[in-house]
Amino acid sequence: MRGYRAETAGEGQDSFLDVVANIVGILIILVMVVGVRARNAPVEVAAIGDEETALAVEFREALETEQVLQGDNHRLVERLESVQAETLRAALRRERLGLAATALGRQLDAHRDQLDAEVREALDLRDEVDRRTRQLEALLRRRTEIAEQEVPPEVLVNYPTPLSRPVDEGELHFQLRRGRIAAIPLEPLVDLLKEEFRRKVPQLRGASEISGSVGPLEGWRMDYELERFDVAMDDVIDTGLSGSYARLRQWTLAPLDPNLGEPLGAALAEGSQFRTILERTRPGRSTVTLWVYPDSFREFRELRRLLHERGFAMAARPLPEGLPITGSPSGSRSAAQ
After folding, report:
1. Taking a C-beta distance cutoff of 8 angstroms, is the pair 247, 328 a contact?
2. Is the distance from CB of 148 to CB of 226 less than 8 angstroms?
3. How many CB atoms lie within 10 A of CB 299?
């Protein structure tokens, strides 16, 4: 038994030694490997360092490039913003210019219209001047023709210096208007007015004034106005008389026909109404009163000559156009010459 254990122990030691030897060999191999690696390590470290240095340089360059690009980008952004602002300002200027151009266009249109109107007015004025010039030339030619004709000498009638006197009675009234002479039956109309006055006076007791007309008579109507006059208190104190009385305010003659009467040429002929009235009247006892309108002054001069030749005293009462023949208690009498 012992011998067995000895052999077994010896065999076990050999196995252990083999294991140790194997381990030592492995360790040696490992040391050698480590040594070889250690020897090569600086070279690998240097290679890694170079690679890292290249990467660092590349990274730094990339970083610098990025910074440069960022700066360029920032400047481009600023430039873009400046361009946008300038574009906006340009758009605003363009809009203002457009508005100004529109306003200027309207002003130009207005000036053009005004110019066209002025041109038309100038053309019209030139046409009017040409027309007036032709009329003037025609008048000058006509005047020359008349001057070349034999003109009979004009007879100047010399009337003595007139001495006027108020007309009290025997007055004949005529209207001279539109070249026509018409007899006015003034005295018969006044007689009708007196009768009307007596009938209308009682009506003034309840009214302050009344109006009416009498006629027509020989183509004439007389319109009148009557009024009630109350005696003033001062007069009552002075005279002791009080009350009211009626009085005529005014009368107005109105022809029924605006062309009443005879044309002057027909009136001066034998057998006319005007000549018949004159022939029934004695020149020394009657005065002819002519109510004359501006359109018949030439006919008035001819009638004055005729009446002067026949020995009639004449009174002239010129009237403005549109004013009727009117009389009142406060009016004036005719003055005969």
Report:
1. no
2. no
3. 22
